[in-house]
Design brief:
The protein is α+β, with helices and mostly antiparallel strands. It has one domain. It contains one helix and six strands. A four-stranded mixed β-sheet has the order 1-4-5-6, with no helix packed on it. It has a two-stranded antiparallel sheet with strand order 2-3. Strand 5, helix 1 and strand 6 form a beta-alpha-beta unit. The longest helix has 16 residues.
Length: 79
């Protein structure tokens, strides 16, 4: 697997009530797949939900008005 790009891990905060969202590792490989890796010290339900929410926040930023949905990219979410 050849990594093409590491993405910034801190996601934008849109309002003052929103918490900071940081992805541990987000990269794009040569074959066009995105890989999101989270490293945690616990595996509780809240941790899994938080990690999925952060990843979904990143993914939803790719959806823009007037553009077609990206149905070709593949995302791998590892927690």
């Amino acid at each position: 697997m050849k990594v093409l790009k590491f993405y910034p891990t801190e996601l934008p905060v849109r309002n003052k009530k929103e918490r900071v969202k940081v992805l541990d590792v987000l990269l794009k490989t040569k074959d066009g797949k995105y890989t999101h890796v989270e490293v945690n010290t616990s595996f509780g339900e809240a941790t899994r939900v938080r990690n999925l929410c952060f990843f979904n926040s990143y993914y939803s930023e790719k959806v823009k008005r007037g553009n077609k949905y990206d149905t070709k990219s593949e995302f791998v979410h590892i927690i």
